[in-house]
Each structure stands twice: as C-alpha cells, then as structure tokens.
Amino acid sequence: MNKAWLLLPLLWVNHSLAAEESPKDSCELAGKLYAKGDLDGALEEARWCVTLLEQEQNNVVAALFKDEIAGFAGGDISHRQAFGFTSLERDYQKDQLKVNVSLAGGAAGGLVGALSVFSQLGLQSGQGQALRIQRRNAMVMQESGKQVLQVSLRSGGILSFTSEQLDAEQLKAFANEFPVTELDDALQ
C-alpha cells in the first residue's frame, strides 16, 4: 500500500506555514481584517507584517557586512533590537589587526539623530577630524587609545569603525572599502 497520501496533510501544513511567513501575505491579511471590521485581528496581523518586514530588511543589511573587506575576514554578526532601535556589529581581523564595525539605527531615528548631533558637537569642540566617506559626513577621533571613525548615514543611522591597532589613515582606507553607500541605500 502506498502511504504517500499520508504526507499530503503535512505538506499542506508546511506550505501554509510558509505562506504565513510572507510579509506580503501578512500585510494583505491585515488590510482584509481591517475591511471586515476586525480591528484587533488587523492590528495583530499588521504588527506581524512589520516584524517580518524588519527581519527581511535586517537580512539585507546583514548581507552587506561582507565576509571579507580589504583583506580582513569577518567574524560572527551580532544583531540586537529593542524599542525600535537596531544594532548590528561585526569584527574583522587580518593577522593581529582588528576592526569593529557597528551600525546603530532603526525606528528610533530621533535617538540616532541625537547621537549624530552629539558626534558633530565633538567635532566642533576639536575632538575629531571631519572627513567624507563615500559622500557621507564622517569624523575620526582618538578615544581611549582607539581610533574611532563615525559615518553619519543619510538614512539616519551611524556606522562606526573602531580599532586599537589601525591608525586614522588605515581606518579611513578600511571604511572606504566597506559598502557604506549600499548599506545606507538599503536602510532608506
């Protein structure tokens, strides 16, 4: 007796679970529930839609933290998200040289914008040197024995490059090899 027909319900369940994971389907369902007057259901589905969209965007952004930048190999990617604020971080290493790259941004754009203003204030007080990285405003400064280069993204985020081993010029060269423009465009 062929028992393949027993697998059909399992295949259907897996297919319907995959369909529920689609942001498009979830967003459309939120609209349909709203049209039917089910506000609670529409809100729940809309929140799920936003969650799925954020996950998709995070995957796109994480992919831009490439495995190799200027001969430096990337380590594990760390991702944190709380209160609409997102942080992505990855260490890169080449021999004994290390660079930490971190991205701060997200729905808390006001907070990130405020951090950017504070960074610019540091620049004005003579603590840093202004420069441009891929047509984005940036600042490089020495902080507790580390070189820190911060790039203000047009999307409202801050991309930071930090190293204890690299000097300012080496850190600037590394930052220029990083896909800053692509990352910024993916966040807008």
Describe this structure in words.
With 188 residues, this protein is of the alpha+beta class. Helices cover 45% and strands 32% of the residues. The chain has helices spanning 8-20, 23-35, 39-63, 109-124, 168-177, 180-187; strands spanning 68-69, 72-82, 85-94, 97-106, 128-133, 136-143, 146-152, 158-163. An eight-stranded antiparallel β-sheet has the order 1-2-3-4-8-7-6-5, sandwiched between helices. The termini are far apart. The relative contact order is 0.10.
What characterizes the major β-sheet?
Answer: 8 strands, antiparallel
Widest β-sheet, arrangement of strands: 1-2-3-4-8-7-6-5
Tell me the span between the first and last alpha carbons: 57 Å
Structural class: alpha+beta
> What is the number of beta strands?
8
Keywords: Signal
Signal peptide: 1-18
Looking at this protein, list some descriptive labels.
188 residues, alpha+beta, eight-stranded antiparallel sheet, disordered N terminus
SSE layout:
Blueprint: H1 8-20, H2 23-35, H3 39-63, E1 68-69, E2 72-82, E3 85-94, E4 97-106, H4 109-124, E5 128-133, E6 136-143, E7 146-152, E8 158-163, H5 168-177, H6 180-187
Antiparallel strand pairs: 1-2, 2-3, 3-4, 4-8, 5-6, 6-7, 7-8
Helix pairs in contact: 2-3
Summarize the structure.
The chain has 188 residues and is α+β, with helices and mostly antiparallel strands.
